[in-house]
Amino acid sequence: MTITITAFERSPDGGKGLARDTRVRWALEEVGQPYQVRLVSFRAMKESAHRALHPFGQIPTYEEGDLALFETGAIVFHIAEQYAGLLPDDANARARAITWMFAALNTVEPPILERETSRLLESDKTWYAERLPLVEHRVRDRLDQLSSRLGDADWLDVAFSAGDLLMVSVLLRLKSSGMLDEYPNLAAYIARGEARPAYQRAFAAQLAVYTHQPPTS
Ligand SMILES: N[C@@H](CCC(=O)N[C@@H](CS)C(=O)NCC(=O)O)C(=O)O
Fold first, then answer.
1. Which of 75, 97, 99, 124 could pair covalently with 163 via S-S, beta carbons 3.0-4.6 A apart?
2. For residue 179, is pLDDT > 80?
3. What pTM does this model have?
4. Is the Cβ–Cβ distance between 23 and 37 less than 8 Å?
5. Collapsing DSSP states into helix, strand and coil, what is residue 84?
6. Alpha carbon of 95 to those of 39, 46, 77, 117, 211: distances in Å?
7. Residue to substitute in 20, 47, 173 for testing ligand 1 pocket (most ligand atoms within 8 angstroms of CB)
8. Residue to mutate (ligand 1; options 9, 10, 59; most atoms within 8 A of CB)
9. What is the whole-number distance in angstroms between the Cα of residue 139 and the centre of ligand 1?
10. In this predicted structure, what is the pLDDT of residue 89?
11. Beta carbons within 10 angstroms of residue 209's beta carbon
């Protein structure tokens, strides 16, 4: 059955791979499943046809036969359940990998997103300079904890899993912040993720969408 995902027609990150379709592309590349991409504009994302797939009018979505999914975590989990390569067979190791998926999206990503939102939408506010260090402190708290837990290991559990895929994807949001320089083991962990051939293919595919389009006036 053909798998179709949605992605930005024009990603606001200019092809840095931070839009969440990259996570889904990466998961599909890891399990070796071909997929099609339907590009959507910001306007189309808010229209009823897309909202039927995604109630919040966002990307990515995932369609496969009668099944339509939204929420990257759920999509990556579905892919990991359907195809071998992203979750271990051992029941306990599998449960731990799923735990890391939730940890990436529920515990580590929120302060990182808060920092991004603050920088993007609040920099003109009088209280911005006072608030940003507080927000960055919350990010560092999580990075400290994650860095301690990872230690010298290559991956969060025994072998690369969907938990690492989501954690690396979340941490990549901080790449341009300079904050990761304080955590050499996390920087190396992200680099290991980025070096995976499946990530490289996913990154190249999302970048091609951007570079193949003429710039807007
Ligand atoms: N929790 C959702 C978040 C989806 C999300 O924020 N998508 C962004 C792109 S990465 C989007 O569509 N933004 C445009 C908008 O919200 O209007 C997920 O993980 O899929």
1. 97
2. yes
3. 0.96
4. no
5. coil
6. 34, 36, 12, 32, 39
7. 20
8. 59
9. 20
10. 97
11. 18
Distance CA 36, CA 32 (A): 13
Query: Which tens digit of pLDDT belongs to each residue from 18-58?
Result: 999 999 999 999 999 999 999 999 999 999 999 999 999 99
Here the tokens at position 22 are: 């990259």
What does the block give as tokens for 27? Answer: 């998961």
The answer to whether residues 26 and 198 touch, using CB atoms and an 8 Å cutoff, is: yes
Residue 164: CB atoms within 10 A of its CB come to 24
For residue 211, pLDDT beyond 90: no
Ligand 1 cavity residues, CB under 6 Å? 19-20, 45, 57-59, 71-73
In ligand 1, the atom with minimum distance to the C-alpha of 59 is 12
Distance 20 CA to ligand 1 centre (A): 7
Q: Which atom of ligand 1 is nearest to the CA of 45?
A: 17
